[in-house]
Automatic annotation (TrEMBL):
The keyword Transport does not apply. Involved in targeting and insertion of nascent membrane proteins into the cytoplasmic membrane. Binds to the hydrophobic signal sequence of the ribosome-nascent chain (RNC) as it emerges from the ribosomes. The SRP-RNC complex is then targeted to the cytoplasmic membrane where it interacts with the SRP receptor FtsY. This is Signal recognition particle protein. One of its GO terms (biological process) is SRP-dependent cotranslational protein targeting to membrane. It comes from the Bacteria. Keywords: Cytoplasm, GTP-binding, Hydrolase, Nucleotide-binding, Ribonucleoprotein, RNA-binding, Signal recognition particle. Residues 269-282 form the SRP54-type proteins GTP-binding domain. It is found in: Cytoplasm. It catalyses: GTP + H2O = GDP + phosphate + H(+). The gene is ffh. Its main location: cytoplasm.
Length: 450
């Protein structure tokens, strides 16, 4: 999980501060020493660490903090604000050209995931912003890059323009003309990369930049390579004047040094992050939300957004009415589990909840095997049995077990879970349901398997 080690060490440092009634300047400096070590171990650039610790210390030893009734909380607040500032302060949106199409050049080294993440971004903008993206295959250096782009493009339902392994600049120009003729309002140009930065690569990218005059030049870089990601960002920026960065594999980077260093070293914002292997696992980068997660304070806004994206509003409204009338059925139960599965791993969800120990749920997911068994069991029932499980006597259970390839014990386990959920649903008054609806406009998941 991203920033796991840093979160633990910062939490330990703050815990020591909370154990003191009033803080002395020595207490603050001791805590800053621990924070400094935590950041260095998280592979944050040492110059960035030095500047960060100096800024926090200067604010933390002020009279307003040392004389406060809750000085430890004040220091957490200062660290939170300085972390947010370190990562850019606020989210930076993709610049949209006033004269479509918007042209986005994707650059980076091989292995960073330019091709896959170009498709992720195209799918994200299509789904979230109603854009009509086009992917242009300009990586004529790497074998099978064109085929890969066509495959991932098809998976996110975004068209791909390609002309084979000819001149990449000619392909880019033709792709932009194709977009103009076919109403595509944003073009992602998948460029060639190398295993290392070399002058030949940079010359080709400079020539393409001059030829297509892109609105955005986004560097796709692997967060897991730490300071090498920062060095790559600096080199590409010096050659091309990047407009932003997309960090991939942030979910697998337990240290987080790249995310905390790139903005400070290059001055260029992180605009997007890849948070998983699936093509829909991409997020806008919010520095304030990320700082909150790092400090173990959760990220409820992202959790709500994730839920809203995965939960069907119409079904949620229908479910609310069923819960009000205590008519929650086994079919509804299954539907909720499917929607929950779409939100990702329980570790990710736990990381967004304030005070939740995400590490305790590391690797936990909605059990797909159990979900498949649940689906098979429910689909083997008659409509009447799904609506009223009290009809399920032993002979019916044996029939369902035979039809679903399960055992009667599996059916009994499912019915027990369902019964517990029904008991929970009876506790919700109409007033509580209204309040839940106002909070998020998405259905409560009474069947959460955790």
């Amino acid at each position: 999980m991203a920033f796991e080690g840093l979160t633990e060490k910062l939490s330990a440092a703050f815990k020591k501060l909370r154990g003191k009634g009033r803080l002395s300047e020595a207490d603050v400096k001791e805590a800053m020493k621990e924070i400094r070590m935590a950041l260095l171990e998280a592979d944050v650039n040492f110059k960035v660490v030095k500047q960060f610790v100096a800024a926090v210390t200067e604010r933390a030893v002020g009279a307003d903090v040392l004389e406060s009734l809750t000085p430890a909380q004040m220091i957490v607040k200062i660290v939170n604000e300085e972390l947010t500032a370190l990562m850019g302060g606020e989210s930076t949106k993709l610049t949209i050209s006033s004269r479509p199409p918007t042209v986005v050049m994707l650059v980076g080294l091989n292995g960073a995931g330019k091709t896959t993440n170009g498709a992720k971004l195209a799918g994200f903008l299509k789904k979230q912003q109603g854009k009509r993206p086009l992917l242009v295959a300009c990586d004529t250096f790497r074998p099978a890059a064109i085929t890969q782009l066509e495959v991932v493009g098809a998976q996110v339902d975004v068209p791909v323009f390609q002309m084979g392994q000819t001149d990449p600049i000619a392909i880019a120009q033709a792709g932009i003309e194709h977009a103009k003729k076919h109403g595509n309002d944003i073009v992602f140009i998948d460029t060639a990369g190398r295993l290392h930065v070399d002058e030949e690569l940079m010359d080709q990218l400079r020539a393409m930049k001059a030829a297509v005059e892109p609105t955005e030049i986004l560097l796709i870089v692997d967060a897991m390579i730490g300071q090498d990601a920062v060095n790559a960002a600096k080199t590409f920026d010096e050659a091309l004047d990047l407009t932003g960065v997309m960090l991939t594999k942030l979910d697998g980077d337990a240290r987080g040094g790249a995310a905390l260093s790139i903005r400070a070293v290059t001055g260029k914002p992180i605009k997007f992050v890849g948070v998983g292997e699936k093509l829909d696992q991409v997020e806008v980068f919010h520095p304030d939300r990320m700082a909150s997660r790092i400090l173990g304070m959760g990220d409820m806004l992202s959790l709500i957004e994730k839920a809203q994206q995965n939960f069907d509003a119409k079904k949620a409204a229908e479910l609310e009415q069923k819960l009000r009338k205590n008519k929650f059925t086994l079919a509804d139960f299954y539907d909720q589990l499917v929607q929950l599965k779409g939100m990702g791993s329980l570790t990710d969800i736990a990381g967004m909840l304030p005070g939740m120990n995400a590490k305790a749920l590391e690797g936990a997911t909605v059990d797909e095997g159990a979900l498949s068994r649940t689906e098979a069991i429910i689909l083997s029932m008659t409509p009447a049995e799904r609506e009223d499980p009290s009809l399920l006597n032993n002979s019916r259970k044996k029939r369902i077990a035979a039809g679903s390839g399960t055992q009667v014990v599996d059916i009994n386990r499912l019915l027990k879970q369902f019964d517990l959920m029904q008991q929970m649903s009876r506790q919700f008054s109409g007033k509580q349901m209204k309040r839940m609806g106002r909070m998020g406009k998405f259905g409560k998941m009474p069947g959460m398997p955790f």
